[in-house]
Every structure is written in C-alpha cells, then in structure tokens.
Amino acid sequence: MAKRNFFIATTTAIALTLSIPIAFAEPGTSSDQSQVKTLDAKSIADQYLKQNADKYQLPSDLSGLKYVTTIDTPAGSYVRYQQEIQGAPVFTKQVTVTIDRTGTPLLAVSDYVPYSSIEQMKKKISHSEAEAKALSYIGGNDTSKWTPASRQFGYVIENGKAIPSYHVVVRTKTPKDEWDTYIHAGSGKLLKKKNRVQHVTGTGTVFNPNPVESKGTTSGLSDNQDKDSAALTSQLKSVILQGLDGSGYLRGQYVTISSKAKTYSATNTFNYTRANDSFEDVMAYYHIDSLQRYIQSLGFNNINNRAIKVNVNGTTADNSYYSPATKSLTFGTGGVDDAEDAGIIAHEYGHSIQDNQVPDWGQSAEGGAMGEGFGDFLGATYEDAMTGNDSYGKACIGEWDAVSYSSTNPPCLRRLDTNKVYPRDWAGEVHDDGEIWSQGEYEMAKAFGRDVATKLILQSHWSLTPNATFADGAKAIKQADVMLYNGAHAAQIDAIWAARGIPTN
C-alpha cells in the first residue's frame, strides 16, 4: 500500500477570516467606533512560524517557504507551505500550522530541511532524457507497457546540499505499478525511487461486511473459484444503494464503478450472487458510498468528497491498490475476489482519504506505517459496526479475504491487538509496522466509541506532512482533541499511545 500524487498545485486560500479582538468598543459607543483587527489564517501561521523560526530551523523571514493552501473546518484551520529553492519545490518537504477557532496556533509539523549550498551543474539534462532514465531505473524500458505519467524539476537535499533533480512518475499503462523516481538533473543518476501504488495482500468478499463475520464461523464457507454455495448465498443482505445518477449504471455521488462486467439495470435493481462479476460491482459501490456518507455524518464534507473511480476486478493479481496518479482504486481477483470483503475495500479507501487530506502522504517509513494502520483501523471499525461489535472477528480485518492464507480462527489479514510497541517491535515492513499504529487507533475507538475516535483521527490528518512520524501523528491526535472536545480525552490519549511507545507531548 503505497502513496499519493506527489505535487500539490498552489491554490487560492479558502475564504477564511479569524477575527481577533484587539480593542473593544466602550459601552454605549457605536459598533463602527470599535477597533477590531482581523487576521486571516495564513497571517497567523506566518507570524507563528517567524516567532518560532529557530525551533523549526526556518529562515527568519520564511523565504524558501511557499504558501500552498488553507483548509477551513468547523474546529479550526490548517495552513500548508511547500519548501522551495529558487522557485522550484524541494520534493516532499512541507510545513503545516494548526490553528484553533480562536486564532491560536496549536501545532506546527515541519519537514523543512536547511541546506548550506546548491550543487552546480555543468549541463542540465532535458525532461525527455530524465524520463528515459527513470524508465530504465524501474525496468520499464518497454514503452508498450510503461509510460512516464508526470515530471517536474526541483531539488533533493542530501547532507546539507541542494541537488537539482527531476521527479518523474512512471507507471504501467494498465494500472498496476507506479513509481516515483528522483533523477539528478546534471548526471542523470538515480537519487532514489519509491513505489507509489497502494497494495493489500489478499482478496475479499463484500456481504455485510463479509460472510465469515456475519455467519460467525468459517464452517461451510469456501471460495471454490468464485462459485456460489448455499452457505454463502444465505449471507447475502439486501441494501439500499444511495446516490445513483439514474443512468442505470453504478455511478453516483461518491463512487463511479468501472469494470469489465459493465453492470447495468434499467430499473436500478442490482441483485446478483457472487458467481456473477456484477456482484463485486454492487458491493464496492455500496461500501464505499456508505463510508463516505459516514464521514460526512461526522461533520466532514471536505474529505474525499468526490465520485472516486473504482476498477472492480481490475487485475488478476491477489492484491488491490490506490493509485495517487489516477486517484482511483483497483481491486484484484486472485484468491477470494478482493471486492467481496468490506474490510479490504475500506482499507484501500483509507489510502484515498489520506491522499486527499495530505497529498503525498507517507514519505517517511513511519508515515507509511500510519497509512497502513489507518486503513486497517477504518476497515476493522467498519466491520465491527456492521456486526454490532460481535466478538468473532473483533480486532481483525479481512476475515473472508484471509480464508485462503490464514490458519487462525477467525482468519485474519492483520490484527489490531498484537500489543506491538515502538521501537521495540519495529520490523521495517510497512504492513507489519502498521499494526503498531492501528492498535493505538483501535484502542481509541474502544475507549471513546467509533465516532469520536474517527473524528479525532480524521481531524488530525490535516496537521501532518508527507514525512510525518508516529510522534507527529500522536501529537496531532491530541491537538485535535483540544480543538474538537476541549481536551476531554487527553489523559486517555496519552495512556493509549504511551502503551504503544509513542509520545504525545
């Protein structure tokens, strides 16, 4: 499960003004005699960063930081900056400032990297030469299968030196793999590369949430190469499909299904059993639509509020992924079809959520683990909500998906109660390490309820940057609690994350 679209286009700030009273009118004077100074969120953030420039190793005049955007929410505002050198981005390096409703800066998360010099080039390679180099470095010389998706000139900072570079995104023409490459703009050598595509190992079934959890046992449940069975058919649930556009296809407010099945109904009646490929289309639509509606029910109408394209049964591999370049989801058919398990669908949608809130999420190892952990949290709590928090399958994700590779009872893709502690149990594998983060978030849901925990986590994402760490994430959650609930859960948040070895202060 990889990451997001790399560069953030500069946008005009969302109209937001925080009014900070400087002097109040004396009683009896007219309102136009009162003197009230208003500062927008950017001005507040600028002032805060200038006052704390030494702490964050920033230039005192903030030169080298370019304002990107302000996100306004009922709880507060989030101001984002991009580090630049000579008008070009320092790739993945950003700064955010979190501001509460009173105009008080609460938190800054900074990726800013100081540098002492800029490497000089005798000759700069061209864009096309950089693309050719990128293709060769990921083994994609066959241009019938691979294509450069985007490229941009900027800088990579290494050992205090700013290196002129190209960032080239290369992906397969049939979506499967997608790579970030950073090419030295002078020599053409590879500086680093990273697979961007979000993968989950396993496949799944969408019932409500899956037949293993709804039945409470694996007895009698077998994939059997996608064939129907009485045991599986008995677990089908009738649901209402909301937000359809009336075309007869599974297209709606928050989901656009793309599949070989080309599922269509003139009466908008989509009743299929799992042996029919249209079954996965319906379940992908329903569960993603339900998740977006749930997010909006919590008060967030600006998180991934779009019709996401979903390529159902889009690969024969035993994995699924989110593509930051195309902003779409793809589900595989290896083993149990992935789009048959609500936990797997929710997990992948979680990557899309984070990409929407923080483009280029997860550049650090800990950030990548937070991405996997959040996906597992979203899937596990969604499954729990569908089954009324029954003990069978609790703290487990992808039970139906896992029947082909797990020998546990219930079968699990991953668990959220492994009691891993950072850094003792750090393994250097993003999914394994995600279990550290997912347990902390899942413990919050157990302590505060799903709704409160999800609100805190979603609110906290806006405070983070592409290179954020576990500690940044935990601190952002605690600050979100201050903004949303006046810090009512602070002590429990401290204890939950301390148990995972992650500080909140």
Automatic annotation (TrEMBL):
FTP domain span: 75-104
Any single Pfam family the record assigns to this protein: Peptidase_M36
Region of interest (Disordered), residue spans: 201-228
UniProt keyword Membrane present: no
Keywords recorded for this protein, A-Z: Hydrolase, Metal-binding, Metalloprotease, Protease, Signal, Zinc
GO molecular function: metalloendopeptidase activity; zinc ion binding
GO biological-process terms attached to the record: proteolysis
Protein name as annotated: Zn-dependent metalloprotease
